[in-house]
Amino acid sequence: MLFTRECDYAVRMIRALASGEIISIHSICEREKITTAIAYKIARKLEKAGLIRSYRGNTGGYALTCDLNRLSLLDVFSAIDPNLLLTDCMQSGYECPRNRPGDPCQVHGELCRIQAQLTQSLREKSIAQILQK
């Protein structure tokens, strides 16, 4: 689970929209130091996930559709990259010659443990709790 630049920028966009107001993509990009091209790409993913909504027109832009008290970093990251895995061998259907029934790979087992802890940590706090600090 490498947190991509898109994941980082998605959290920044959510932070920019935390006031609940409709904010233009230009303003979001200025506040959060994001390029417009990538911001539109991320906004589409966040909108598809139901986290934000776009508004058209002169006063258009984006606004949150979710409660920051119920939104976690895991939710935001998953909207951008649904396969948040430490390694490829953790993907469903991945066949590793070193990880077989009856002869499991110890490294795979340890990575699964770490993945579970990381996932839990990303889920623990809401975005609202993080932004209050």
SSE blueprint and pairings:
Elements: H1 5-16, H2 25-32, H3 36-48, E1 52-55, E2 61-64, H4 73-80, H5 106-124, H6 127-132
Helix pairs in contact: 1-2, 1-3, 1-4
Q: Nutshell version of this structure?
A:
50% of the residues lie in helices and 6% in strands. The protein is mainly alpha-helical and 133 residues long.
Low-confidence regions: none
Give the C-alpha Rg. Answer: 18 Å
**DSSP helix count?**
6
How many runs of DSSP E, i.e. beta strands?
Answer: 2
Q: In percent, how helical is the residue content?
A: 40-55%
Structural class: mainly alpha
User: What are the secondary-structure elements, in order, as H or E?
Assistant: HHHEEHHH
Describe the largest sheet. 2 strands, antiparallel
The geometry reads as elongated
Strand proportion, as a percent range, falls in: 5-15%
Strand line-up across the major sheet? 1-2
Mean pLDDT over the residues: 90
Task: Determine the N-to-C terminus distance.
Answer: 25 Å
Overview of this protein structure:
It is a single chain. The chain has 133 residues and is mainly alpha-helical. It contains six helices and two strands. A two-stranded antiparallel sheet has the order 1-2. A hairpin with a 5-residue loop joins strand 1 and strand 2. Helix 1 packs across helix 3. The model has no long low-confidence stretch (mean pLDDT 90).
Index terms:
133 residues, mainly alpha, 6 helices, two-stranded antiparallel sheet, elongated, single chain
